[in-house]
Design brief:
- The protein is mainly α.
- It has one domain.
- About 75% of the residues lie in helices and about 0% in strands.
- It is built from three helices and no strands.
- The protein has helices at about 1-25, 35-60, 65-80.
- It is elongated, with a radius of gyration of 26 Å.
- The termini are far apart.
Length: about 80
């Protein structure tokens, strides 16, 4: 009998708690538009990803080359850096 009462009390408490969050979610601020730097980074990521897939399919990757190292070099190159 006591377990049913505790369960019912917990269920009512949770229901009331979550009922208050639904209207709050509707009043959330809209998402911000990405900045120019973020858009540029996404474009570089897309281009480097295509290069990675092409090089991997063609077997033109250096032995032991992994995506993080490739991405770092490609990103620097795309930004106009000196690394190749």
């Amino acid at each position: 009998m006591m377990n049913r009462f505790a369960s019912a009390t917990l269920a009512v408490t949770l229901a009331l708690t979550f009922a208050g969050t639904v209207p709050a979610l509707a009043q959330m601020k809209p998402k911000k538009e990405p900045t120019a730097a973020q858009l540029a980074a996404r474009e570089r990521l897309t281009k480097c990803s295509a290069e990675w897939k092409q090089a991997k399919a063609g077997g033109k990757l250096e032995p032991g080359m992994k995506w993080p190292k490739f991405w770092s070099a490609c990103n620097t190159r795309m930004k106009g850096g000196t690394r190749a």
